[in-house]
Amino acid sequence: MAIGPTWVPTADSGHMGDTMRITGDGLYLIAGLALLIGAVLPRLLKRYAVSAPIAFVGAGLLLGLVVDPDRLSPIAEPELTEHLAELTVLIALMGVGLAIDRPIGWRRWQVTWRLLLVAMPACVAAVAGVGWLLGLAPAVALLLAAVLAPTDPVLASDVQVQGPSTGEGAEPEEDDEVRFALTSEAGLNDGLAFPLVYLAVFAATKGAVGDWALEWVAWELIGKTVIGLVTGVVAGRLLGRMAFSAPLPSFRLADSREPVLALAMTLGVYGLAELLHGYGFLAVFVAALTLRAAERAHDFHEELHSFLEQLEHILTWGILMLIGVAVTGGILEPLTLPGVLIGLLLVLVIRPLVGWLSLQRTPMRRSERWVTAAFGVRGVGSVFYLAYAGSDFAADLPWLWATVAFTVVLSVAVHGVAATPMMRMLERRRRGS
Question: How many CA atoms lie within 13 Å of 269's alpha carbon, on the beta-carbon side?
C-alpha cells in the first residue's frame, strides 16, 4: 500500500528557509502530539499564571507555520467550524449542568438572573452602540454584539465549579458564589444569545423593522425559548427516571455504569429540541440540571461529568489550535482600528462595568462582584454563532472573523493570566473572614 508524503514544500525546495507544509499522515503525528501536550499542560501550568487555553492558542500559532492554514480557516470551512464548535459547546453545556449542585430557584439563582437579564442585554446594547458610532452598519454592529454576547462554558473552566458533589451526605455547595455565578451564566446565555443573532439576521435580510418585529418577538424570542425550556425539563425528568428509578433494572441507566450515556443524552436532547424548532443549547443545559436534581447524591453524576469533561478538553484543544492556525494564516489581516477598539472595550471595560452594576445589592462581597463581572470569557460560543449566521453577512465576513478572533484571543490571554491569582485571592479572603 502506497504511503503519501508527510510534507511538501510550498515553493522551490532548493531554497533555504522554505516553509514545509505537513499533509497526509503527518497530521496524525501532530494530532498525537497535541493530545499528549494537552494531557501534560494542565499539570505543568497549574502553579503559574498561564492557562492551558493560552498554551493551545500558542501551539496553534506554531502549527500554522507547518500546515496549510487556508484549509483550516473558518472562512474557508464554515460548516466544519460551525459543527465542531457546536459539538464542543453542547458537551460543555451538559457538563456544567451536571456540575451545578445548587437547586434552581429565583432567590438561590439571583446572581444568575442579574447577569442574564441585566448584564447580557446591556453588553449587547453597548457593543452594538459602539460599533454603530465607529461606522458599522446597524445590522453588522448588532450581529457582532450578539455573537460576542455569550460568556463561554468551554474556556471558563478555571473559574467555574469543578464538578458535582456526590456520595452519602453530599450537600449543595453554597459558599463559592463566584464560581456558581459564572457557571450558571455560561450555561444559560449560550441558548439565550440565539434570539439576538436572529435579530441581527432579520435586520439584514427582512427589510423594515415593522415587517418582522412581531414574528421575531413571538417566535424567535418567546416561542423557541419556551420549546427549549419545556423540552429540557421533560427530557431531563425522563432521563432521571430511566437512570435512577426505572421499574426494570435492565433499563436503569445508573446501574450500567456506562459514562458514554452522557454523550447519548446530550445529542438526543439537542436533536429533539431542534426537531421541535426550539433552542437546543438551552434544552441541553436545562435537561442536565433536571437530571442532576433527580438524584443528587448518586455518584453516576460524577461519572457522567468526568467523561464529558475529558471529551470537552479534547474538542477544546482542537478549536483553540485551529484559532491559532487561523491567526498564523492571516485571519487578523482585515482587522481595523474599530475592531480592535470593540474587542478591548468589551473585555476590559463594558463587561466588567455592566456586570458589576448588575450585581449590586446581592449577597456577594465587593471583591466577588468585581471578579464575577470581569470574567466574562469569550470563546467557542462566539465562533459557533458567527459560523452559523455569517453567510448572511458575506461582504463583512472577513472583518467580522478578524474582530471575533481578536476578541477571543484577547479574552483567552487576559482571563487566562488573571484566573489563577484572582481565584486564589478570593479563597484567601474567604479563609480570612
Answer: 37
> From the centroid of its chain, how far is CA 417?
18
In CATH, the number for domain 48-432 is: 1.20.1530.20
Half-sphere exposure of 90 (CA within 13 A, CB side): 22
DSSP assignment of 46-93 equals: TTTT--HHHHHHHHHHHHTTTS-GGGG-TTT-HHHHHHHHHHHHHHHH
Beta bridge mates, 7 = 22
What does each C-alpha distance from 409 to 327, 342, 380 come to in angstroms?
9, 13, 11
Query: What tens digit of pLDDT does each residue of 217-250 get?
Result: 999 999 999 999 999 999 999 998 888 887 877 7
Considering Cα of 82, then 87, then 90, then 92, what sign does the dihedral take? negative
Which has the closest alpha carbon to 419: 192, 191, 179, 229? 179
Tell me the C-alpha distance between 343 and 339, whole Å: 6
Q: How many helices (H) and strands (E) are present in the chain, helices listed first?
A: 19, 2
Q: How far is CA 325 from the centre of its chain?
A: 19
Sheet strands (E) in 299-366: none
| Cell numbers placing 391 | 453567510
Measured CA distances, 48 to 42, 52, 240, 424 (Å): 10, 10, 40, 12
Under 8 Å between Cβ of 236 and 291? yes
pLDDT at position 303 is 87
What pLDDT digit, counting tens, does each position of 94-128 carry?
999 999 988 888 889 999 999 999 999 999 999 99
Interacting residues of 390 by C-beta distance below 8 A, sequence separation 6+: 78, 397, 400, 401
Residue whose entry in the numeric block shows the C-alpha cell 478591548 = 344
Q: Distance (Å, rounded) from C-alpha 198 to C-alpha 203?
A: 8
Who's near 36: CB < 8 A, 6+ residues apart? none
Rounded alpha-carbon distances, angstroms, from residue 70 to 239, 405, 406, 409:
43, 15, 18, 19
